[in-house]
Amino acid sequence: MATPAAPNRRTLMTRARPWLRALHRDLGYLAVGLTFVYALSGLAVNHISDWDPNFNNYEAHHQLAVPLPDADQAVADLLLTTLSIADKPTEVYRSDTHEVSVLLEGRTFHVNTETGAVLEDGSRPRFLLRIANWLHLNRGKKAWTYFADGYAAFLLVLATTGLFMLPGRKGLIGRGGVLVILGIAAPVLYVTLSGGP
Fold first, then answer.
1. Which of 15, 62, 144, 195 is placed for a possible disulfide with 118 were both Cys, Cβ 3.0 to 4.6 Å?
2. pTM over the 0.85 mark
């Protein structure tokens, strides 16, 4: 009785491709949320020398009725009452002969005691971006490390399954292979031409 021939590699790959496509698709969907977080945060943090990726700095102007009280704390109390601020100041001090500074969490008020003019400067967290940066830079430490490792594993599987999804000239032995080589060459060339770490 003749021994059945072992299936050739092409047949095995042909059978595996639908499973690779399904795995690639499902892991891709699963990784979308984290991909957005890491991509947005990566763009923001790459340009940290040009802007603050976590906070939006602002200035605002207010006016208090004059004359103002002589005591610094009384000036601070009047400011908070006038602007309907319920927070307690972390510090109140005279920053200049005619200026009282009132520090609150995330903002400072500079009150001109002669004119009643108030300059407020502060910072507000950037919507979503601050959270994305917090996650990307692993501020959550040990617990988030497991999620980040899982995401890295997803990316490795996505990259690997993507290599074998298409057969022939559009796949790894054709155009796909050329693109893979270009993708590998980009960081290698950069490190080589820039002098490396």
1. 62
2. no
Asked if the structure places residue 63 within a domain, the reply is yes
- DSSP state, 92? E
Complete edge-to-edge strand list for the sheet that includes strand 55-63: 55-63, 117-125, 107-112, 99-104, 91-96
Indicate the number of domains in the chain.
1
Q: Report the C-alpha dihedral over residues 37, 40, 46, 49, rounded to 10 degrees.
A: -110
Quote the CA–CA distance of 104 and 111 in Å, as a whole number.
14
**118 in Cβ contact with 112 (< 8 Å):** yes
d(CA 109, CA 59): 10
**Of 115, 103, 98, 104, which Cα lies nearest the Cα of 62?**
115
Calculate mean pLDDT across residues 61-67.
96
In a domain, 96, yes or no: yes
